[in-house]
Amino acid sequence: MLLHAGNFKALAQKFDFSRFSSVADIGGSTGCACVALCAHHPHLTATTCDLPAVRSVATAYIERHGMQGRVKVMDMDFFKDGFPKTDVIIMGMILHDWGLDRKKFLLKQAFDALPPGGAVICVDNLIDDERRKATLSLAMSLNMLIEFGRENSFDYTFKEFCSWTQDMGFKGTAILPLIGSTAAAIAYK
């Protein structure tokens, strides 16, 4: 999603990808996250995963940036298809679209696809744990409830993310501030 391209560039610069070789972006849209990561880390290969209707847009974006040799496109409905096996799974602005059961389902899909030591990175507008400071994130969460309403879509705190991921077996978590109120919530298997 080009709207968040700056956050993906910040992620590429701030997160240590040196021990990983492959990345999959779930709900990857145009493929801009994969392109940003591969442009900054020449050793990475990546797969952008989204619905078949998005394939032509992603393919064009990847080709425009000369990354067709390192970034693949995979047709996928992330609620019906298993996640690809990879070292790192990214979900950018995905978890906040869904209610708690679906959030946990997606995180479990990531857990099952990752090898030991792998990481899931969720890029979202995280709410501060006290729910008092991150006003943009709080407004975004309210917007999700109003706009989507489905299953009570909501943004979340890092503390909530830690609880969900630890309950399903992830061994460690970290938070990485990106741009503005956006952060990467990271869980390691």
UniProtKB/TrEMBL annotation:
Keywords: Methyltransferase, S-adenosyl-L-methionine, Transferase. InterPro entries: COMT-like, COMT_C, SAM-dependent_MTases_sf. This is O-methyltransferase C-terminal domain-containing protein. One of its GO terms (biological process) is methylation. It comes from Dunaliella tertiolecta. SUPFAM superfamilies: S-adenosyl-L-methionine-dependent methyltransferases (SSF53335). Residues 10-152 form the O-methyltransferase C-terminal domain. It holds the Pfam family Methyltransf_2. GO terms for molecular function: O-methyltransferase activity. PROSITE patterns: SAM_OMT_II (PS51683).
